């Protein structure tokens, strides 16, 4: 009995524990296959059908003036290969077809991380932020954004983990912040002098329990007040469009937009770039620590099951060098210029 590619994709996604965002990408490839409008059962898919489909995807991406049509076609190639390999393992097809070579894609990109000088400028620019009309906060909006910048740099958090601007987001609540040195789950062998923070990743919904360093501890303490409820969010002031607020903050800090060194195009900085900034500095400080800090998936049975990565993450978080502006609260320069002590 012949089986369609749609049923094969559904079976593959059900068998593999993929993140919701990855499942959307596979369904996007399936919708392209349907739009290609050639009903080919999976047992009849050969090298020629795959090549024709990938050429069609490449041509469509070129006509729509996509920035990287080769990468779009190669993504579809990866998805098809994964689904057909699974179908071959399940004996749904007799042989795995040979796949054509990958398309040429543009891998060169500009700098996608912020320097420490730019992070300092962003931190001090928060003192010039104005409260949106109709918004009532316990503190000024800049205090929340300064703490958010510190957490983005130290943990590489998703935007939805800081501010809930979509219903599916689970932001950090005050009950997720522990000031006790003991690990909240009781399994940690080390104790953190400055406490612990628990959060959930947006993409994978995986829970992380991370130690706080002195900088993170001081900024979260600066947000804590007597009226804090355990189920109330830690951060306010993100609005329904936090990237738009971050774009205004970049303008206040006079940070130039991102520049693609190949195409010459300029793009605005996004909060996601702070996650890339976190990965950059962790790899410079302690190689391979960014994999565990950011929660990336790893390959290899030994590394995935036997490597002790928690001590690596603990040492990286507690020893990473901070931008000088992040230390202003600790050294008593909150709201003051660290060189001349003038109020912002």
Would you mind describing this structure in some detail?
With about 350 residues, this protein is mainly alpha-helical. It folds into 2 domains: about 5-90, DNA polymerase, domain 1 (Orthogonal Bundle); about 115-325, Intergrase catalytic core (hpI Integrase, Chain A, Orthogonal Bundle). Helices cover about 45% and strands about 5% of the residues. The protein has 13 helices and 5 strands. It has helices at about 5-15, 20-35, 45-65, 70-90, 115-125, 140-155, 160, 215-225, 240-250, 270-285, 290-295, 300-305, 310-320, and strands spanning about 175-180, 195-200, 205-210, 260, 265. It has a 3-stranded antiparallel beta sheet with strand order 1-2-3. Strands 4-5 form a two-stranded antiparallel sheet. The chain is elongated, with a radius of gyration of 24 Å.
Q: SSE order, as H and E?
A: HHHHHHHEEEHHEEHHHH
* Secondary structure tally, helices: 13
Largest sheet features: 3 strands, antiparallel
Number of strands: 5
Q: What radius of gyration results from the CA coordinates?
A: 24 Å
**Class inferred from helices and paired strands:** mainly alpha
The helix content, as a percent range, equals 40-55%
Topology:
Blueprint: H1 5-15, H2 20-36, H3 47-63, H4 69-89, H5 116-125, H6 141-155, H7 159-162, E1 177-178, E2 196-200, E3 207-211, H8 214-223, H9 242-252, E4 258-259, E5 266-267, H10 272-285, H11 289-294, H12 301-306, H13 310-319
Helix pairs in contact: 1-2, 1-4, 3-4, 5-6, 6-8, 6-10
Descriptive terms for the model:
hpI Integrase, Chain A, 5 strands, 2 domains, 344 residues, mainly alpha, 3-stranded antiparallel β-sheet, 13 helices, DNA polymerase, domain 1, 5% strand, two-stranded antiparallel ribbon
